[in-house]
């Protein structure tokens, strides 16, 4: 944000790279300033590689990393909040939850982050508390459940940081939990998910499997969901009990989640 505010294209041009100006542009190290040079590469825990030791996706494994490497999800959150997952600077970049984020721009992002840092964070703030702090800051500056507020929430979800809504009762979409499901292995599935938006906004449906830590690990093998209608079809090819997450998102980035079990016999 300092680079953007200074706007010195002939010197340290505005970008989202860390350490790029200190490198000699003629040397190989300049091609890989951290943390945003290679946001699409993956590391073993599913994080997005930006430096060999720094990851973008929050997980419990961050606790074992040194302080500077633990900052990765916050760095990536801020980039997605400001620039989004598709920008002229870096083109399309992946997100940890596979969902796109439309940035709100540098000016609004910097105000939200500054307000959160100065009014709602302290030395003990962890990632979940940082999410609440920035949501509160967005609500104070721009109103709760507006585009700015919802983009803060989406950007945190995009780096695998989720939690409760500090301002419940907003205008988020309504999603009906279908209840636990039981099917035979290989049997065809035809399950209609029911959802609506209070303002009649178009909805997008997604489905994900959850691991034992309730973190998303990808779509259920053999099943797919129609993004516009919410119809789940396909067939599960392996026996077991699966944790499934449903998300419905409206056109201004408000999202509602629900979870259920799917048993395959």
Automatic annotation (TrEMBL):
Assigned keywords, A-Z: Hydrolase, Metalloprotease, Protease, Zinc
Domain Peptidase M4 C-terminal: 1-161
Keyword Membrane in record: no
InterPro entries noted in UniProt: Cadherin-like_sf, Ig-like_fold, Peptidase_M4/M1_CTD_sf, Peptidase_M4_C_domain, Zinc_Metalloprotease_M4
Keyword Signal: no
Pfam families: He_PIG, Peptidase_M4_C
SUPFAM superfamilies, per the entry: Cadherin-like, Metalloproteases ('zincins'), catalytic domain
PANTHER family with a match to the protein in the record: BACILLOLYSIN (PTHR33794:SF1)
Designated name of the protein: M4 family metallopeptidase
Organism of this sequence: Phytohabitans kaempferiae
């Amino acid at each position: 944000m300092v680079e953007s505010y200074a706007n010195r294209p002939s010197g340290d041009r505005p970008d989202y790279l860390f350490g790029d100006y200190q490198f000699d542009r003629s040397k190989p190290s300049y091609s890989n300033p951290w943390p945003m040079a290679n946001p699409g590469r993956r590391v073993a825990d599913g994080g997005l590689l930006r430096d060999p030791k720094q990851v973008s996706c929050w997980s419990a494994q961050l606790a074992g990393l040194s302080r500077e490497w633990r900052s990765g999800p916050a760095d990536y959150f801020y980039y997605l909040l400001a620039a989004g997952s598709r920008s002229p600077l870096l083109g399309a970049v992946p997100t940890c939850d596979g969902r796109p984020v439309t940035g709100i721009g540098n000016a609004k992002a910097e105000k939200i982050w500054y307000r959160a840092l100065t009014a709602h964070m302290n030395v003990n703030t962890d990632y979940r508390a940082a999410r609440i702090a920035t949501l509160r800051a967005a609500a104070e500056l721009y109103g709760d459940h507006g585009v700015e507020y919802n983009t803060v929430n989406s950007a945190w979800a995009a780096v695998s940081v989720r939690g409760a809504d500090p301002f419940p009762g907003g205008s988020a979409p309504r999603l009906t939990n279908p209840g636990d499901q039981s099917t035979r292995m290989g049997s065809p599935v035809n399950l209609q998910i029911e959802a609506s938006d209070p303002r009649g906004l178009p909805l997008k449906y997604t489905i994900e499997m959850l691991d034992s830590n309730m973190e998303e690990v990808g779509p259920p093998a053999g099943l797919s969901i129609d993004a516009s209608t919410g119809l789940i079809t396909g067939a599960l090819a392996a026996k077991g009990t699966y944790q499934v997450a449903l998300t419905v998102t409206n056109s201004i980035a408000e999202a509602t989640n629900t979870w259920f079990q799917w048993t395959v016999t």
